[in-house]
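Supplementary Text 2. Reproducibility record for the structural model of the 131-residue chain.

All settings were left at their defaults, and a single model was retained for analysis rather than an ensemble. We include the record here because the model underlies the residue-level annotations in Supplementary Table 4.
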Amino acid sequence: MAIHEDIRAYNAALSAGDRRISEALSRTIDRHLPGAECKVWHRHPVWFLEGNPIVGYSKLKDCIRLLFWSGQSFDEPGLKAEGSFKAAEARYTAVDQIEAADLERWLAKSIEIQWDYKNIVKRKGRLERLK
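Retained model, structure tokens:
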């Protein structure tokens, strides 16, 4: 699936360094999640499988944050816990910090290891593991 025009616009609006990071992330994510829907969701690029958010990135004050909604379950040292659910993140300040092998492994795990964020409101904040 082609990268959504809103994601391309999001990337284009960033500074040159942040744009290089974001474009590298979006190309790699799109290539490794070919069946995923992608769009700007809550003002940030996000990829979904069957309506469930899987991975996205956002501009923070001093970096680009890559977020995997189920990333705490990946058991990966390069990802740090984020928030009170199952999300984990990596932060980048330069495109050469992106380790392709790590990112590709995390994306493979994001397909296999999913928590059901799509129905979290219906379940009153309780997550259930999918797959």
